[in-house]
Amino acid sequence: GAGVSQSPRYKVAKRGQDVALRCDPISGHVSLFWYQQALGQGPEFLTYFQNEAQLDKSGLPSDRFFAERPEGSVSTLKIQRTQQEDSAVYLCASSYPSGTGGISPYEQYFGPGTRLTVT
Amino acid sequence: RKEVEQDPGPFNVPEGATVAFNCTYSNSASQSFFWYRQDCRKEPKLLMSVYSSGNEDGRFTAQLNRASQYISLLIRDSKLSDSATYLCVVTAYNNAGNMLTFGGGTRLMVKP
Of A12 and B31, which is predicted with more confidence? Predict the structure, then answer.
């Protein structure tokens, strides 16, 4: 079946531009996560949604970062006034609720990511 | 100090070799443990979960030592296709559901 999809796959932005990154989770997945992966590092948690509710945004690096999931399916991560340090791969992951379905109650399925380069 | 620490490598091994990766974590409240595999310019994919009793999946064996907060992955009879970055991952259920905390990854290169 269809996995997690993300668009665009690549984005080049000039410093100061706003960008919007889209994530389409697996249909029926309640939980949705955004991670940021800098070059040569592991992914780092940004924010988490359960349905349309944003339950944790503690990983967002600044108030320039904003995420939404208004209807509990597609999510958008917006970065305002991009800076060079925002250059990274932004990964979206979705999962079943804990304890129901999936190989493991915690298995998260990742999308291919959006590679953002700020020049 | 990072919450999950791994030797970044790279580990360069010949085909057929046995290689082991280690990882330590600092949050004693961590509840679940995993190894993910990430190929170059691709997304992470779950390789296997890690249990206290140790678990094996073909050529891969994972071990968890809760007392020492230490996780290991052993790969036997390495194949060229095992070349990838291996990410040690822990999770603790909190308001962020099952947020994954990743180590920096260990890069493995298997050579003919």
Answer: A12
Burial class (CB in 10 A: 0-12, 13-18, 19+), A93: buried
Residues of chain A found within 8 Å of residue B42, distances taken between Cβ atoms? 112
Contact A115, A39 (CB under 8 A): no
Quick one: A79 exposed, middle or buried, by C-beta within 10 A (0-12, 13-18, 19+)? buried
* Cα dihedral B48, B52, B56, B57 in deg (nearest 10): -20
- Which pLDDT tens digit goes with each residue over A54-100? 999 999 999 999 999 999 999 999 999 999 999 999 999 999 764 44
Nearest CB to B104; choose among A41, A108, A112: A41
CB within 8 Å: A33 and B93? no
Q: What chain B residue is nearest to A57 in terms of C-alpha separation? A: B96
Residue A101 has a pLDDT of 43
The answer to whether residues A3 and A91 touch, using CB atoms and an 8 Å cutoff, is: no
Three-state DSSP class for residue B72: strand
